[in-house]
Amino acid sequence: MIKEMVCIVCPMSCRMQVEMDKKKVVSVSHNGCVRGVKYANEEMSNPTRMVTSTVVLKNAALTRLPVMTASPVPKRKVADVMKQINKVKVKAPVKMYDVIIENVARTGVNVVASRSMDAIK
Amino acid sequence: MRKVDCVIVGGGSAGMSCAVAIARFGIKDILMIEREKELGGILNQCIHHGFGLHIYKKECTGPEFAQLLIESVKKYHIDIKLDTTVINITEGKKVTYVNEDEGVVEVQAKAIVMACGCMERSRGMISIPGDRCGNVLTAGTAQRYLNIDGYMCGKRVFILGSGDIGLIMARRMTLEGAKVLGVAEIMPYSNGLSRNIVQCLEDFNIPLYLNTTVTRIIGHPRLERIELSSVDENLRPIKDSEWSVAVDCLLLSIGLLPDTSLLNKLNVERDPQTRSVAVNEAFEMSLSGFFACGNVLQVHDLVDDVYLEAEVCGREVARYLHDGFVDEEMVHVCAGENVAHVVPQRLRKENMQDDCRFSFRVKKPMRDCILRIRSGENILREVKKRVMLPAEMEKLDLEKSMLMGAKDLVFEVKEDV
Mutation test of the interface with chain B: which of A48, A54, A85, choosing the one with the most B Cβ atoms within 10 A? Predict the structure, then answer.
């Protein structure tokens, strides 16, 4: 099966043709450079995404705390990660990179605060 | 009246980067005025990922980038006024600001830096016909409601314009449970980065309709339905191509305009192409001692570029305050064939510190083209480009030695070469 995909490594945005045998990449064509092959392989075998969102924040001047996964998580887990993020409530003070959720959706990745937030004086 | 060396209007990425540079070059009396309750500007609501690869050597979220920058600002003695709005600036460099504690206050500055960003184009600016109903918002407004205040502004959403904020909001609202029914783009190509098209639209099967625009807004008192039409090559809606979709929220991501409203009363040279002020290589306007950097000068794609531009601006502000500039004739820098604008618009050779970075945008997507910089008929530099896109700001550094002999400069792009 041949899948068409746009390479996002650089602004050239090559429209690549990726030949697949079940879940394995057999060949990549219409790629401008070797980076396209690497991207196609990653994207076809184990696509990952960073997830960023906010959680409810108490005891601070603002009511939401921005959070992020500390590293990219498998794309198929993104919805589960969001579900768990939406259940969390946090109390200020919070420091940037504090762990908000450990091992989110059993991905082995933590959700951390993406900024600090002082408590209300 | 209080006297200060420098007033910086705006405490976002440009204002903070500029303030740090001015302080580092030995100016002590700096006043930074920010109208929000905290520093950071638009970065605070851009909770997504991908900022700062160049400056901090890692991909940060917006709030993270802002915090790293705030930490550098705090290392210097910079007087920061939050929750404070500048309401007037005179040619004599008197700045009037207002806040709850002090009321209306006037300060006398020796230099003024405008670092107050840009604003989103709104419905009125593109005159979409139809009802004046609620929930037709700019994408950035919806972003603020969602990411700072925690409110979702719709469940069935359509987005007009394929700018990056619109694409980012398509993903964000989908992740929070809304149904994003599509993105319409009047041009035949997307205005967003291809990375955002893939990761914000294709990941969630959100359709992108090119050559399409919203031609009617229907609903009372809240939005109920929008009508879309295909457009011809002159961007005019084609009759009988209308289709409609039921939505409760329309987000507009139709471009950004530098917010130069504080300069309206001043006699300062403007550039109709950037819709902002014209500046020289020191980021100084035609009024001596007035500077501009960041999105108020030209709309950037990357905060890293804002940071670097503001850093050079800050260095030049410090130089102006220490020694002043030499009076000399200016070289004009013009946007030629296929180029939409170039910054800086003026160049003073004697004042030039070192190489000069030019930022510019092309008017349309082009492949296999040549960027050419001319001084009269004399070609100073030619660069082969595999691809150039309006959505990506181009940067080019030209050596001081080369520019010393130059007359007026023209930036142009030749196709099919």
Answer: A54
